[in-house]
Amino acid sequence: MTDDQIQAYAEAHSEAEPPLLHQLWRETHLQLLMPRMATGHWQGRLLSMLTHLIRPRKVLEIGTFTGYATLCLAEGMAPDGHLHTIEINPERASRIRRYVAAAGLAERVTLHLGDAADSLAGLVGETWDLVFIDADKISNARYFELVINQVRPGGLVIVDNVLWGGKALPTYPLKANDHDTRAVRAFNEQVQRDPRVVPLLLPVRDGLLLLRRIV
User: Which of 6, 47, 83, 172 lies at a C-alpha separation of 20 to 30 Å from 121?
Assistant: First the structure.
Protein backbone atom coordinates (compact mmCIF):
# COMPACT_ATOMS: atom_id res chain seq x y z
CA MET A 1 0.00 0.00 0.00
CA THR A 2 1.39 3.40 -0.98
CA ASP A 3 1.40 6.62 1.03
CA ASP A 4 -1.12 8.10 -1.44
CA GLN A 5 -3.48 5.18 -0.86
CA ILE A 6 -3.21 5.60 2.91
CA GLN A 7 -3.83 9.33 2.58
CA ALA A 8 -6.87 8.74 0.38
CA TYR A 9 -8.26 6.22 2.89
CA ALA A 10 -7.71 8.65 5.77
CA GLU A 11 -9.50 11.44 3.91
CA ALA A 12 -12.38 9.14 2.98
CA HIS A 13 -12.87 8.23 6.63
CA SER A 14 -12.62 11.76 7.98
CA GLU A 15 -15.05 14.68 7.97
CA ALA A 16 -15.80 15.80 4.44
CA GLU A 17 -14.15 18.95 3.15
CA PRO A 18 -16.64 21.84 3.45
CA PRO A 19 -17.75 23.14 0.03
CA LEU A 20 -16.29 26.63 0.56
CA LEU A 21 -12.90 25.18 1.42
CA HIS A 22 -13.03 22.84 -1.58
CA GLN A 23 -13.73 25.87 -3.77
CA LEU A 24 -10.76 27.71 -2.25
CA TRP A 25 -8.53 24.66 -2.73
CA ARG A 26 -9.45 24.42 -6.42
CA GLU A 27 -9.02 28.14 -6.98
CA THR A 28 -5.63 28.08 -5.28
CA HIS A 29 -4.45 25.23 -7.54
CA LEU A 30 -5.77 26.88 -10.68
CA GLN A 31 -4.51 30.42 -10.09
CA LEU A 32 -1.47 30.44 -7.81
CA LEU A 33 2.09 29.25 -7.96
CA MET A 34 3.13 26.67 -5.35
CA PRO A 35 -0.47 25.66 -4.48
CA ARG A 36 0.89 22.85 -2.29
CA MET A 37 1.42 25.54 0.34
CA ALA A 38 -2.32 25.44 1.02
CA THR A 39 -3.28 23.32 4.01
CA GLY A 40 -5.71 20.96 2.26
CA HIS A 41 -8.52 18.65 3.29
CA TRP A 42 -7.08 16.23 5.87
CA GLN A 43 -4.74 18.63 7.64
CA GLY A 44 -7.47 21.25 7.60
CA ARG A 45 -9.84 18.86 9.35
CA LEU A 46 -7.13 18.21 11.96
CA LEU A 47 -6.75 21.95 12.62
CA SER A 48 -10.52 22.25 12.87
CA MET A 49 -10.67 19.33 15.30
CA LEU A 50 -7.98 20.88 17.52
CA THR A 51 -9.74 24.23 17.67
CA HIS A 52 -13.06 22.56 18.46
CA LEU A 53 -11.35 20.78 21.36
CA ILE A 54 -9.63 23.91 22.67
CA ARG A 55 -12.41 26.43 21.87
CA PRO A 56 -9.89 29.31 21.72
CA ARG A 57 -10.87 32.93 22.18
CA LYS A 58 -7.67 34.37 20.73
CA VAL A 59 -5.97 32.74 17.73
CA LEU A 60 -2.86 33.89 15.88
CA GLU A 61 -1.79 32.63 12.46
CA ILE A 62 1.60 33.57 11.01
CA GLY A 63 1.48 32.93 7.27
CA THR A 64 -1.98 33.09 5.67
CA PHE A 65 -1.27 32.19 2.03
CA THR A 66 -4.84 31.98 0.60
CA GLY A 67 -6.63 31.51 3.92
CA TYR A 68 -7.44 27.79 3.88
CA ALA A 69 -5.98 27.14 7.33
CA THR A 70 -7.43 30.44 8.53
CA LEU A 71 -10.96 29.24 7.91
CA CYS A 72 -10.23 25.85 9.49
CA LEU A 73 -8.76 27.43 12.63
CA ALA A 74 -11.73 29.76 12.94
CA GLU A 75 -14.28 26.92 12.85
CA GLY A 76 -13.76 25.90 16.46
CA MET A 77 -13.28 29.31 18.07
CA ALA A 78 -15.38 30.28 21.05
CA PRO A 79 -18.47 32.33 20.15
CA ASP A 80 -16.60 35.51 21.14
CA GLY A 81 -13.33 34.33 19.61
CA HIS A 82 -11.17 36.37 17.25
CA LEU A 83 -8.39 35.33 14.87
CA HIS A 84 -5.47 37.50 13.76
CA THR A 85 -3.67 36.32 10.64
CA ILE A 86 -0.47 37.74 9.14
CA GLU A 87 0.39 37.62 5.42
CA ILE A 88 3.46 39.20 3.86
CA ASN A 89 2.16 39.28 0.27
CA PRO A 90 -0.45 42.05 -0.30
CA GLU A 91 -1.45 40.51 -3.63
CA ARG A 92 -3.20 37.74 -1.71
CA ALA A 93 -5.28 40.10 0.43
CA SER A 94 -8.37 40.37 -1.77
CA ARG A 95 -8.75 36.60 -2.07
CA ILE A 96 -8.26 36.09 1.68
CA ARG A 97 -10.83 38.77 2.54
CA ARG A 98 -13.30 37.41 -0.03
CA TYR A 99 -13.24 33.91 1.46
CA VAL A 100 -13.28 35.16 5.05
CA ALA A 101 -16.40 37.17 4.18
CA ALA A 102 -17.98 34.19 2.40
CA ALA A 103 -17.45 32.16 5.58
CA GLY A 104 -19.28 34.83 7.60
CA LEU A 105 -16.12 35.69 9.53
CA ALA A 106 -15.45 39.27 8.42
CA GLU A 107 -15.98 40.59 11.96
CA ARG A 108 -14.00 37.82 13.63
CA VAL A 109 -10.87 37.61 11.50
CA THR A 110 -8.34 40.44 11.20
CA LEU A 111 -5.82 40.31 8.36
CA HIS A 112 -2.45 41.99 8.95
CA LEU A 113 -0.34 42.64 5.85
CA GLY A 114 3.43 42.96 5.93
CA ASP A 115 6.40 41.54 7.78
CA ALA A 116 5.35 39.23 10.60
CA ALA A 117 7.73 40.77 13.14
CA ASP A 118 6.26 44.22 12.50
CA SER A 119 2.70 42.94 12.84
CA LEU A 120 3.55 41.04 16.02
CA ALA A 121 4.96 44.21 17.54
CA GLY A 122 1.44 45.66 17.33
CA LEU A 123 -0.07 42.62 19.08
CA VAL A 124 2.13 42.53 22.18
CA GLY A 125 -0.85 43.06 24.49
CA GLU A 126 -2.66 39.92 23.34
CA THR A 127 -2.73 36.56 25.12
CA TRP A 128 -3.01 33.66 22.70
CA ASP A 129 -4.86 30.40 23.22
CA LEU A 130 -3.63 29.01 19.90
CA VAL A 131 -0.83 30.01 17.52
CA PHE A 132 -0.26 28.49 14.07
CA ILE A 133 3.15 29.17 12.50
CA ASP A 134 3.29 28.45 8.77
CA ALA A 135 5.49 31.09 7.16
CA ASP A 136 9.14 31.20 6.02
CA LYS A 137 10.82 28.24 7.67
CA ILE A 138 14.11 29.98 8.29
CA SER A 139 12.27 32.23 10.78
CA ASN A 140 10.49 29.51 12.80
CA ALA A 141 12.69 30.08 15.86
CA ARG A 142 12.29 33.84 15.61
CA TYR A 143 8.50 33.70 15.40
CA PHE A 144 8.35 31.17 18.24
CA GLU A 145 10.36 33.43 20.54
CA LEU A 146 8.27 36.46 19.60
CA VAL A 147 5.00 34.78 20.59
CA ILE A 148 5.68 32.10 23.20
CA ASN A 149 5.54 34.41 26.21
CA GLN A 150 2.11 35.57 25.05
CA VAL A 151 0.71 32.03 24.88
CA ARG A 152 -1.29 31.21 27.99
CA PRO A 153 -0.32 28.17 30.10
CA GLY A 154 -2.11 25.23 28.51
CA GLY A 155 -2.21 27.04 25.19
CA LEU A 156 -1.03 25.47 21.95
CA VAL A 157 1.53 26.43 19.34
CA ILE A 158 1.38 24.50 16.04
CA VAL A 159 4.26 24.68 13.58
CA ASP A 160 3.89 23.35 10.03
CA ASN A 161 6.45 21.75 7.68
CA VAL A 162 8.80 20.53 10.43
CA LEU A 163 9.72 17.43 8.39
CA TRP A 164 10.58 19.65 5.43
CA GLY A 165 10.13 16.97 2.81
CA GLY A 166 12.16 14.52 4.88
CA LYS A 167 15.22 16.78 4.87
CA ALA A 168 14.81 17.46 8.60
CA LEU A 169 15.95 13.90 9.33
CA PRO A 170 19.65 13.71 10.24
CA THR A 171 20.22 10.95 7.68
CA TYR A 172 19.41 13.33 4.82
CA PRO A 173 22.60 14.70 3.18
CA LEU A 174 22.72 18.41 3.91
CA LYS A 175 24.00 20.82 1.27
CA ALA A 176 26.15 23.75 2.35
CA ASN A 177 23.69 26.37 1.06
CA ASP A 178 20.51 24.71 2.32
CA HIS A 179 19.74 27.33 4.95
CA ASP A 180 16.04 26.43 5.26
CA THR A 181 16.79 22.83 6.19
CA ARG A 182 19.39 23.94 8.71
CA ALA A 183 16.84 26.29 10.26
CA VAL A 184 14.13 23.61 10.45
CA ARG A 185 16.50 21.12 12.06
CA ALA A 186 17.80 23.68 14.55
CA PHE A 187 14.30 24.77 15.51
CA ASN A 188 13.09 21.20 16.02
CA GLU A 189 16.03 20.53 18.34
CA GLN A 190 15.58 23.84 20.15
CA VAL A 191 11.95 23.30 21.14
CA GLN A 192 12.63 19.68 22.06
CA ARG A 193 14.79 21.06 24.89
CA ASP A 194 12.68 24.11 25.74
CA PRO A 195 11.28 23.80 29.30
CA ARG A 196 8.35 26.09 28.46
CA VAL A 197 6.65 23.59 26.13
CA VAL A 198 5.81 19.91 25.69
CA PRO A 199 6.38 18.87 22.05
CA LEU A 200 4.56 16.30 19.96
CA LEU A 201 5.61 15.88 16.32
CA LEU A 202 2.92 14.42 14.07
CA PRO A 203 3.99 12.93 10.70
CA VAL A 204 1.02 14.60 9.00
CA ARG A 205 1.74 15.72 5.42
CA ASP A 206 5.01 17.64 5.82
CA GLY A 207 5.05 17.39 9.63
CA LEU A 208 3.03 19.24 12.26
CA LEU A 209 4.68 20.07 15.57
CA LEU A 210 2.33 20.60 18.51
CA LEU A 211 3.80 22.54 21.43
CA ARG A 212 1.77 22.79 24.64
CA ARG A 213 2.78 25.74 26.81
CA ILE A 214 3.39 24.63 30.41
CA VAL A 215 5.21 27.57 32.09
Answer: 47
Q: Which domain holds residue 63?
A: 3-213
Tell me the pTM. Answer: 0.95
> Three-class SS of residue 72?
helix
Q: How far apart are CA 18 and CA 22, in angstroms?
A: 6
pLDDT in tens, 105-162: 999 999 999 999 999 999 999 999 999 999 999 999 999 999 999 999 999 999 999 9
Please enumerate, as own/partner, the contacts of 42-45 that have beta carbons within 8 Å and a separation of 24 or more: 42/7, 42/10, 42/11, 42/14, 42/204, 42/205, 43/69, 43/204, 43/205, 43/208, 44/17, 44/68, 44/69, 44/71, 44/72, 45/14, 45/15, 45/17, 45/72
What are 85's strand-pairing partners?
61, 111
Q: What is the distance between the alpha carbons of residues 18 and 10, in angstroms, rounded to a whole number?
A: 16
Question: Structural domain tally of the chain?
Answer: 1
* CATH classification of the domain holding 198: 3.40.50.150
